[in-house]
Design brief:
The complex is a heterodimer of chains A (about 80) and B (about 30). With about 80 residues, chain A is an alpha+beta fold. Chain A has one helix and six strands. In chain A, strands 1, 2, 3, 4, 5 and 6 form a six-stranded antiparallel sheet that branches. The radius of gyration of chain A is 13 Å and the shape is globular. In chain B, about 60% of the residues lie in helices and about 20% in strands. A two-stranded antiparallel ribbon of chain B has the order 1-2. In chain B, β1 and β2 form a beta hairpin. Chain B starts with a strand and ends with a helix. The mean pLDDT of chain B is about 90. Classes of the chains: A alpha+beta (about 80), B alpha+beta (about 30).
Chain lengths: ~80, ~30
């Protein structure tokens, strides 16, 4: 499978009192982010609901992470403004 | 209509997110 993934500059975010590396990634026209936690990565992206509202989601989807992802998404959004 | 993380999304958006999942699966395996 051929993929085209480009990486922009990694940046640091503060989440719940700790700093984490956040890496923007692109696949074609989709931008998603990889956040490095101690032992794993969390991938998240901004999506659009059927009624046009924007929301942050983990990829792959994980309902347990809903609030974490929402919080991280807001931090990333502020960084990217 | 489809759902992603419990939120209703269009089929196009659902496909886009599912394609992202494949990309991330490849990243996680170190194939990209």
């Amino acid at each position: 499978m051929s993929q085209s993934i480009r990486t922009d500059d990694v940046f640091s975010i503060e989440f719940r009192g700790k700093d984490y590396w956040c890496e923007p990634l692109r696949r074609n026209n989709s931008i998603f982010y990889r956040v490095k936690f101690e032992k794993s990565y969390l991938y998240l992206t901004q999506a659009t609901s059927a009624n046009g509202a924007s929301f942050w989601t983990a990829v792959p989807e994980d309902p347990k992470l809903k609030h974490v992802v929402q919080e991280l998404g807001e931090i990333i959004s502020k960084h990217c403004q | 209509m489809c759902y992603y993380n419990g939120i209703k999304v269009t089929k196009t958006e659902y496909i886009r997110l599912k394609e992202l999942e494949k990309t991330i699966a490849f990243l996680s395996e170190g194939l990209v």
